[in-house]
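Table S2 (continued). Query chain:
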Amino acid sequence: MVRMSKEWPEEGDLIVGTVHKVLGYGAFAKLEEYEGKEAFIHISEVSSGWVKNIRDYVRENQKIVARVLRVNPKKGHVDASLKRIREDQRTRRIQQWKIEQKAEKLLEISAKSLNKTLDDAYDEVGYIIMDEFGDLYGGFESASDDGVQVLLDIDISEDWANAITDVAKKNISTPEVQITGYVNITSYRENGVEIIRESLQSIEQDGVEVQCVGAPKYRIMVTARDYPTAEKILKESADTCIGMIEENDGEGFFQRELEE
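Corresponding output:
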């Protein structure tokens, strides 16, 4: 189980769980990142459409991603929803969880090199790394890219810093992710075609590619080392493109997913 630095998720968080009980009115899932906690998904939160048989949508041992609606520490579970998530969010969250599983394994390897347990590793350095870098993988990635000093700077002992850096450099390569968004842009000037072309060319750069889906829709594909960076570049690119169109008596809007 990948561990989180906080005891409970927060409202709005995307959580990963494994369904262990399905009843007529809802399903229960053990949370993969919060030991001893579970999520309850009411049948009304399983799908946006009418659900005749809940087992058509969830089953025991199924891995799910859900959005937290409410947190109830007294009952030891959270109320969650399966229907309030886009498919790209679900895919990204599962990928993030798998990456953190890998990072936990790397932490365990680091611990063994010092004759320590995984529990020791979390207590002595794991939670420090998570608080500083956002997650375990971020710490290993930074150690791989920048060396042992990045860990020494956050008061991790030299033994741990050397062990983690050694494991990181042997096991982590710089990742790349790709995301896609769409701009719908129209220019009403006589030279509108040229204005649109210039607005699209203005955002093309390393890691940003533009394709025509079919006027007035254009696809923006962004490749970056991680999702937060990619999302930031995508938004900035779309804003720049639409801004140029609007400055030239046109209009436009951004879509994260292409509507049928």
